[in-house]
Amino acid sequence: MSIEELCKAVERGDQEESKQIARQLIDGGVNPLNIISSLTEVMESIGDKFSRLEIFLPEMMMSGDAMAGVVQMMAPQIKAGEAGSTKGKVILGTVKGDLHEIGKNIVKLLLESNFFEVKDIGVDSDPVKFVKEAEAMGADIIGASSLMTTTMPHQKEIIDILKDQGLRDKYKVVIGGAPTSQEWADEIGADLYCPDAGSAPKLMAELLKIKVR
Fold first, then answer.
1. Angle at 75 between CA 112 and CA 119, to 5 degrees
2. Which CATH number characterizes residue 179's domain?
3. Which parts of 52-173 fold into alpha helices (H)?
4. Mean of all residue pLDDT scores within the chain
């Protein structure tokens, strides 16, 4: 079995076959982070097809469920290792009006595997909720994902609310998601743009001036 075969199974939305192939790859010594990286590319491609109306919502959801099953199955392998002190506290969510969560879930898993404490506030999260949850947690970072151009302005709203409440300097605001970019991050005044899930732990650690394993 190969990662390519796993990607095809996920693209078909075959949950059982996806998990079976992933298990064989893990048992064969394949790095789970390499598997996730390849699957992330597959999901980005599926998202592009959906936006071009080449596939429809049920197909995208089936692929997403297959991907989620693989990620959940691999979580123990990714998290395996010696315990470490918390690197930082992160509030993580998908912004209001956006129901995408696969990418966010992968970021959560990777952050936790690098000893970040993460509170996932889910999808379709109001900008005010990000701020309230950050205050309640005593977070270092507010991470906001947007997978649609129509929901991107809600990332800016989070920053605007922080400014209005005199809290802007208290938190690092990190954005990500397929339609976002470094230019967008600069425009809205975000502290960091993460181009993909795999880079999130390292970039967030650098932002907080700490090291990841």
1. 35
2. 3.40.50.280
3. 57-79, 102-113, 127-137, 153-164
4. 89
